[in-house]
Amino acid sequence: MSETKPKSEKRSWLIWVLVVIVVAVVTGVGVWYVTRPPPPANVLEIYHWWTSGGEKAAIDALVAVFEKEYPDVAVIQSPVAGGAGYVMKSVMKSLVMSGEAPDAFQLHAGYEMKPYVDAGYLEPIDDLWKSEGWESVIPPVVRDMVNWGGHYYAVPVNIHRANVLWYNKKILDKYGIDPATLNTWDGFFAACDKLKAAGINYPIAMGGQGKWEIAHALEQIFASEGIEFYQDLVNGKIDDPNNPKLVDALNTFKKYLNYVNPDYAALTWDQAVAKVIRGEAAFTIMGDWANGEFFVANMTFGVDYGAMPVPGTQGMYGLVIDTFEHPKGVKHPENSIRWLKVVGSKEGQDAFNPIKGSISARTDADMSKYGPYQRSAMQDFKNAKYMYPSIVHGSGAPEVFAAKFNDIASEFATTKDVSAAAKAIVDAISAAKSEYTKVWKLY
Ligand code: GAL
Fold it and tell me: Is 126 exposed, middle or buried (0-12, 13-18, 19+ CB in 10 A)?
């Protein structure tokens, strides 16, 4: 006779088995939950060198547009201080070369992009240009500077003007100096003499901590020698140290330096602008990122300060263009593309540029968002007779030459040796000869 377990005993045995299974599953899930690999962080990391008051306010405004659109993405800004990227440029090269490229980084349009493009570190972004319709709103002169071999490798976020003379209007008013008289070097130096005689010993403010601040002034003086000369310069065609325009420009710069604050080498570009803001100096030559400093200092354009083209450069527009790109193999490719979309968007540009001092790289900017300086810059851009790419800000000439140019300008500020500087420039061009792959047609 077979023994059968009572029904109730069978049920409780089954319940025990079930309990054990459930406990095992729950524990397993718990262990998995605790030890599982962390989900990929939803991050965007960008590098830039916008650390001055105006620059920081502008990039924060652009990031705010991104954050509004993509609230789940944490933006990590990794700023590297040093105007014109003079520190960041080498930091970025080593990061990119060691496979550690951030999701996007600030890069000038033109030659500065070339080493990255040539070495295959950037992805072409033609599809993005197409889907965002950028070709129809970004003018050809800007488009061409981010296009290499028929492919787009970057998105411009702005158009800065290099050849701007900023002045403290209250000082000019006080000493009866009409800005209209400043459009020739003779008129400008006459005004400097007047201010000097009145006790303002250093009417021109200049920085020089990164050397480029000095080269920036010299570059605009080169432009004032005329577009033919500048075109030869960026095409690597200046081969005679006795070239009369080269010599004349250096002589003009020599004169200019007589009126410059002697502590220039210790100052950053924005500290030089601050001298004009405080009324310690009347003038400074700087790109229109300076407008961002006047802006954050609550100075009113046309009342407290003014701006005009550097003497001898009326009708010319010196181009400085900041871009971002999509490096190969980045950690957050989707967010990198999202960032580029915001960078190129009307909303992004109209948030960033009114603070930055630049004009939008897009022709459909909402003018009402921009202050009077930029509205006049937009007009000047539209009506410019000539545009020329900045060497100092990475666009116009091969990087090796641009770096040497900074050294030569800074050396000249101490030695004031015209023939040595002329020779050094010609030699630097000749040493970089094979790198001049772009042919600029500026007129
Ligand atoms: C330029 C850059 C500008 C501005 C300036 C000073 O090279 O294009 O955006 O920031 O340097 O840092």
Answer: middle
User: Does the CB atom of residue 50 touch ligand 1 within 6 A?
Assistant: yes
Q: Which ligand 1 atom is nearest residue 394's CA?
A: 7
Lowest mean pLDDT among 21-30, 212-221, 227-236, 329-338: 21-30
Q: How far apart, in whole angstroms, are the C-alpha atoms of residue 341 and residue 335?
A: 10
- CB-based contact 101:121 (threshold 8 Å): yes
241 Cα–ligand 1 center, Å: 30
d(CA 108, CA 289): 14
Evaluate if residue 353 carries a pLDDT over 80. Answer: yes
Assign 11 a pLDDT band (cuts: 50, 70, 90). confident
Question: Does 112 contact ligand 1 (Cβ within 6 A)?
Answer: no
Question: How many angstroms separate the CA atoms of 207 and 264, rounded?
Answer: 5
The pLDDT-based confidence of 1 (bands split at 50, 70, 90) is very low
Site to probe by mutation for ligand 1, drawn from 47, 49, 105 as the one with most ligand atoms within 8 Å of Cβ, is 49
Ligand 1 atom at minimal distance to the Cα of residue 50: 10
Cβ of 289 closer than 6 Å to ligand 1, yes or no, is yes
Q: How confident is the model at residue 41 (pLDDT cuts 50, 70, 90)?
A: confident
If you measure from the C-alpha of residue 49 to the centroid of ligand 1, how many angstroms do you get, rounded to a whole number? 8
Q: Is 393 in the pocket of ligand 1 (CB under 6 A)?
A: yes
Provide the pLDDT confidence category of residue 37 given band limits of 50, 70 and 90: low
Q: Which atom of ligand 1 is nearest to the CA of 270?
A: 6
- pLDDT number for residue 18: 73
